[in-house]
């Protein structure tokens, strides 16, 4: 399925969205600047009206085109939208766009620039009204003294005095919020958006999505603001377009940073409670809740420029995720980080006449076990490392798996000479249907699954050739960097 980086509608996705193996052969599309409203969460294609809407708005999704065969070169072309996911892209942490695998892919639509001021003011006004309503419920007024005076009697315990247990949603939020930041990224031309990030270590490293900071990578400006209002300038330490993960570092970081505890995403089960923290539509420090509604969901998204695709085997949640949530933490019931909110599938044309669509309860997060390894690589070397099999596969649907193309990108061999696939005897025309026990229904799905592994891992490949099913074991190779 295609998803938007926080906010675009996406068509229904197949059980397992496509993911390219090495790098797609399609040409790189020209990038376009991110919207001023914030980094978008990668959005999914619009969902049919029959699909119930369950969550709030998110960024616009991108529908990748395409069917060209990816190969070992990078970056891979934006994937064609599978039946279950095409949609505009939007970054969950900020305003932007992306697509989820599962339906036909479309190139992510550029996030529209929208004045956040009016929307934010309206939100503040509404919040004030709600607060007023709550206050009315807590106390009552008694006429005393004279006709023109009154005394308000309030409850003995106000909200701020109540002690929150560590295991409650309020307790988790109270502990985690001080370790999250709202990120504002701006390119040298003034284009940019808003996203979210969280404290990774005591040295000032913040983890977020690549599409949140993409605008500021080359000579742009980055700032990170904590819930207490303290704002710090920051710089990009490293970014991985394929994984959609980035690490920034605070300048003059405070000495009392408290990193969030990282959980184990492999042990997460469908039905587990989730808590998402972010800045949807610029509304910082927003907390929403839900459950894990699926695991290993193949998702393809864009960095917001429409030129580079990201692939993940994602955690799916119905916690409300919208543009601006991108890069924020997805927590379990104990407050441990289990994922990085990155994309959504949404329906509709956007909120308030904007092109940023909202959440319908289909949000996608990069599993923290994978993101942790990527973040550590970026901190150490500044560059990501990708596992590969050394073969180009088609991004088209309807092939019954990941089909090795007849030719690679730019006329290169579809099967890299001396690479893992060649050593294992794989040939052009072979259709890969399983990686270990994971069913592979497309090229993008295969790529996403391969990238959950590390170079040097041994995997079992099941493929079809001339109507016969065969199985072979191979050792994954590696590629350094996105280019």
From TrEMBL:
Residues 81-90 have a biased composition (Low complexity). Pfam families: PDZ_2, Trypsin_2. This is Trypsin-like peptidase domain-containing protein. GO terms for biological process: proteolysis. InterPro entries: Chloro_Bact_Ser_Proteases, PDZ, PDZ_sf, Peptidase_S1_PA, Peptidase_S1C. Coiled coil: none annotated. The chain crosses the membrane at residues 120-143. GO terms for molecular function: serine-type endopeptidase activity. Residues 389-476 form the PDZ domain. Residues 1-99, 402-427 are annotated as: Disordered. Residues 14-32 have a biased composition (Pro residues). Keywords: Hydrolase, Membrane, Protease, Transmembrane, Transmembrane helix. It comes from the Bacteria.
